[in-house]
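Hi P.,

Sorry for the delay on this. The queue was packed all week, but I finally got your sequence through. Input first:
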Amino acid sequence: MEHNSKKKVLIVEDQFIEAHDLQLIIEKAGYDVVGIARSVAQAVELLEQVKPDLVFLDIILKGNETGIDLAKRLQENHIGFVYISANSSKSILEEAKKTQPYGFIVKPFREQDVIITLEIACYRHKHSLESLLLQQNLLQKSIETIARNESKWEQAVIEFGTAVQPHLPFDYMECGFIDRTSENNQSIGLLRRNLDEYQIITADKLAKTAGLQKQELLRMYEHSPKVESPQLCGHQELAELCRESPIRRLVATTFGIKSFLAFPLQVKEDRIFHFFFYNRQPVVYETAHLDLLAGLERNLAAFCCAACRPCPTHDNSVGPTHCRTGTDRTHCFWNDDRQQRENALGVRPDPKGSAYRNLGVDPRRKRYR
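Then the structure:
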C-alpha cells in the first residue's frame, strides 16, 4: 500500500485497549494517528489543533455528549468519520445513519475489517469533495447565465429552480426579499407540478390557495421569526419550527411539506435575500446542500440583481414616483437604474469575470442549525 503523503486519522475512543489496538492497525496500514481522545470535549480540543482526514469514532463516550453529537460537528467541517461501537441496535443505527458516516464497525473488530473500511472511507471522502466542486461549477455557470439574461423576474425564478433541482431537490421553493411589514413583499414561490413543470406562486396565489385574504398572509409573514442564518429541518425539526412560524406552518400544510432548508443572503442596508427550499419527503436536506450554496454566494448575489430589474408594476404614465400598485416608487426596491440597484444590494461586477460578488456577506457564517 503506497501513500504519497500520510492520511491523518484521529481516534475517539474511551477504552484504552481498543484505542491502542486501533492505533496499531491504522499505523501499520500506513496512516498517521494524530491523537486519541477519550471524550467529545477532548476531541474538540484536538480538532482545534489539527484537522484529520478521517475520524474513528465510538458512539458511547465518557461525558454527556456522544459520538453522534461529535459527528454532527465533523459534518459541518467536512471531516469524514467511521463509527465503532459495541452497540448495533436498530435505534442506534438509525441515529447514526442520519449523520452519514463513511462506515460502521461493530466491536470486537478485526484488523482486516478496519483496513478495508479505512480505505473505502478515505476514497468516499475524497470523491464526495470532488463531487461538491463539480456541482458548484455546473451551477455557477447556470446561475451566471440566468443573471446575465434580461428575463422577467418570474421567468428567472423558473430558470433558477430548474437549474438547482438536480442538485438541491425541492417541491416548493421561495426566494426574494421578504418584507414583513408592508405589502411590497418581493418574494415569489415556485411549485413543482411534475418532473419538468413548475408553477409560479405569487403572494396573491398563495393566499388564494390557502383560502386566506392577502392581509392575513402578510400578517403571517409579520409574526414569523426572521431567518438570518442557514437552517436544516427534517420532519421533527420542521414541526417545531412551524409552531413558532405561521408562514412555515402555512406552506407545510398547504403543500404537504416535511423538510425544509433556508439559505439567507445578507446584503447592504440590513436586507436579506432569502432562498427557502421545501420537500415532501421527511429526510432530504443535508449539510452538503448548505455547503453547495455557501460555495455559490457570489453567484447567488448576481441572481439577486435579477430580482431588481425594472418593476413590472411600474407605469411611467401615472407619474415618475408611483407605480400601478400605488406604492411610492422611491421606497420600492425595483428601480430602473442598474447601478443604483447594485449599490443597494451591495454587489458589483467582478473585474475578473462576469459574475458579481456580494460585499455584504458575513464570512463568519453562523453554524447550521
